[in-house]
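Listing S7. Sequence submitted for prediction.
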Amino acid sequence: MNSDPNNPEVLASLRNELEASPIVAALAACGIMATTTGGFTADFRAEAPGEVRVMVKSQDLARAKTALEEFSQQQSEIDWSQVDVGQPD
């Protein structure tokens, strides 16, 4: 039996939506539709930590993994000492 290529698959699990949103945006720039789940519970301040999952279609999972790896590498190559982030208020 073949699995449905539209079934959701977990690409990544993160601490909150602040970490997940740039990944979803980077995937969208690559033409990969992604969404997050768990944002409401991850931001809860409780003893049981939550997580935000970045979900993609199973047919896009391999491409999304490659895109995520490239995105992560690009982020690690930024020399933040050279970025002008403005003056604190």
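Caption to Listing S7: primary sequence and predicted structure tokens for the chain studied. The first strand starts at residue 8 and ends at 14. The CA atoms of residues 53 and 69 lie 16 Å apart.
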